[in-house]
Amino acid sequence: MLNRTEKKITSDEQAVSEVMGVVLLVGIVVIMLSVLGVSVFAQDGPDDVPHTNVQEIMDISTDTIYLKHNGGEPISTEDAEIIVNINGRKYEYNSSQIYENLGNSSVWKIGDTIEINTMSTWTVNLQNNDRVELFLVDTPSNELIQKSRLTTRFQNEPKFAMTLTPMGEITDTSSSGKNKKGYGEKWQVNSKDSSADEYKKDNEDKNCTSYYPPTYVINTSIYQEFEFAIKPAAYGIRPGDTFCNVTLTIVYYTHDSSGKDNKNCVIKLKYYDTYEHGNGEWVYYDGILPAHNSDFAPEHINLTDRINTREDLANFKVRIEASTEANENAEKELNIDYMGLWVEEDNI
Fold it and tell me: Among residues 130, 155, 180, which one ends one of the domains?
C-alpha cells in the first residue's frame, strides 16, 4: 500500500504529463498552420487583367470583324487571344496573329484597330443572321478581358457624326538652316493644348508638330503629311454611304513675321482624293491659308464636295506645304497643334 507522500507524487506527475501533452499538441498545430500559410502566400497570385474598352463591329459585306481599342489600359499582344464563336463553332486568333495584325506591335493601345477577315483566316462567310460571340482573353490569367455578341446594328442605324484625328503616320521632309529636322507624332495633333511659347521646347517635347518652310518658294518635296488611316467599317460606314458635311479643322501657329505686314508666310494645303475605281491624286485646296503670327488659331476647310465616299474617307490624308521670306538660318517654323476631320453622314 502507498503511503500518503507517494500518492501525492504520483498525482503531480500525472498532472504535469497532461499539461505537457496539450502544449506539445498545440505546438504541432501551430507549426503545421505556419507551414501551410507560408506555402499558400508564397504562391504567385493571378496576374492583373487589363481594364480595357474594345468596340467590336462586324461588316458582313467584307467578311470582316473590327476590334477597336476605345479606351482603358493597353494590352500586351503577347498576353492576348481572341476567340470567336460563329453559329456554335469556335475559331481562335492567337497572340502571334494579333501582333502581326497590329503591324508587329507588342502593345495594343488606344485608337488601334484589329481587322480579322473571317474568309481569309477561317474560310467563313459572314451572313446577316449569323450568331457571333467574341471573347477577348488574357492568357496569363486565363480570364476574360471582354465578352460581347456582335451584330450588324449599324446597317439599321446608318447615321454617323464624329471628329476623326490622324491615326496613321506623320511624315515630315523639312529641315532648318541649322539642320534641325521637322518632326510630328499623332499624339501632338489629337487635342488643342499648345501655347505661343511652344516653339522654345525641343521638337520631341512640344504639344504640336514642327515644320520648317523653305525660303521664298514652295518646294513640293518639302512637306508635312498627315495620314488619317480611317477604317470606315469600324465606325459603321458602309459601301454606298454618303456624307452631308466633311470639314477639316487645323489649329496652327506660323511664328513668322518676315515679309511686309507679316503676311509673306505662304501656306498651302493638299488632300488626297480617291477616284471611283480606287486610284486617286493629290488636290490643292483653293486658296492660301492665312498666317497666324500671334498665337495658335483655327482654320476650317469644307471638303464635302470632294471627300464624299467611303473610299475617300479610307484613303484620306493631308499635306502642308509652305514657304517663308526669312533667311533659312532664322529657323522659322510652322507648328500644328490640332487636326480633325468632322464627318457627318447623310440620313438614309
Answer: 155
User: How many domains, in total, are found in the chain?
Assistant: 2
Q: 243: domain CATH number?
A: 2.60.120
Predicted TM-score of the model (pTM): 0.59
d(CA 177, CA 215): 10
Q: Is residue 97 part of a domain?
A: yes
Q: Are residue 114 and residue 217 in the same domain, yes or no?
A: no
pLDDT, one tens digit for every residue, the chain (348 residues): 445 555 554 555 555 566 666 666 776 766 776 666 655 555 554 557 888 888 888 888 788 998 888 888 999 999 999 999 998 899 999 999 999 999 999 999 988 899 999 999 999 998 877 889 999 999 998 888 988 887 654 444 446 788 999 999 999 999 987 788 999 999 999 999 988 888 788 989 999 999 999 988 899 999 999 999 998 877 778 777 888 899 999 999 987 655 444 445 789 999 998 886 778 899 999 888 988 888 899 999 999 999 988 889 999 999 999 998 877 667 788 999 999 999 988 765
Helix H or strand E encompassing 320: strand 317-323
Domain that holds residue 252: 161-345
- Residues 338, 190: contact at Cβ < 8 Å? yes
Report if residue 119 sits inside a domain. Answer: yes
Alpha-carbon span 122 to 91, nearest angstrom:
7
CA distance 8 to 81: 77
In this structure, is residue 186 part of a structural domain?
yes
**Would you state the cell numbers that stand for residue 151, as one nine-digit string?**
451584330
Calculate the CA dihedral of residues 46, 51, 53, 57 and round it to 10 degrees.
Answer: -10
40 domain residue, yes or no = no
Single residue among 155, 190, 222 that ends a domain in this structure: 155
